[in-house]
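Re: Re: ligand-bound prediction request (bumping)

Still looking for help on this. To restate: I need the protein modeled with manganese (II) ion bound, output as structure tokens. Inputs repeated here so nobody has to scroll up.
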Amino acid sequence: MTTLEFSPLQPLAAKAVGVDLSQPLTASVVAAIEFAMDHYGVLVFQNQALTQDQQIAFARQLGPLDIGFGKVKGPGHRLKYRELGDISNLSLQGEVAARDSQKIVGNIANQLWHSDSSFQRPRAKYSMLYAVEVPAVGGDTEFADLRLAYDALPDWQKKQIDGLVARHHPLHSRLLLGDTNYSQAQRDAITPSEWPLVQTDPRSGRKILYVGSHACEVIGLTLPEGRLLIMDLLEYATQRQFVYRHTWAANDLVMWDNTATVHRGRYFDVSQRRDLRRATTEEVAA
Ligand code: OGA
Ligand code: MN
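Reply:
Sorry for the wait, this slipped through. Here it is.
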């Protein structure tokens, strides 16, 4: 029997070896994964062969599952479970979708820095993204550590943002890109949520700079002032020294903490197949 080990990647993340995620995990392996997540924020598991059933079973061992933006999406889902987000450029029939289809247009917002489901309460805790098929070039995913970002802020700015609260909206990043084709029912499906810009990460106990592209205003500031502050802070938080970039291979599973980190997809040629699926747990209030 092999044992689970973690080897750190810089400046955040770790590679996990010695575990087969398709099989039920022992309580001590679950605890080791949670402990490592609290520390690293991102874990990379390679050479995992997971059916949809196995991916869901793995994720359920880490908490109740979240549907997130799936609540806004129209009917029709290619995957077997609503709790598996279809992070692909494929149509319901499994072919590369038309460039101007909602499937491709909507997913482009994943290329803006964000934390999954920060627009809802409870928000997402862990995201577990599994690669079925990846393009030969492009389509990496980047992760930035919001704890490192907070620690590095100058003191004057820590004071400036202390106590400020941002509103996070499910459609803000999409509307910003010009993806506006949402009905009133879709627009109303999720009530926006408010979160302090500075928080104590419930798991690592460290302070975080909680910003991302779902944040659309800062309570008490004018819209332009608040949006500029959010943009400035996000730019600060995502400097190279706080970022791990993952280049995908098929059968990789990458798991991240949505409070300690933000992430974004990177450009790829949407005429090439890219098929990933995501299970996500909900943050349970302490
Ligand atoms: C996600 C996401 C980015 C990517 O699945 O939550 O933002 O690279 N994905 O596909
Ligand atoms: Mn995401």
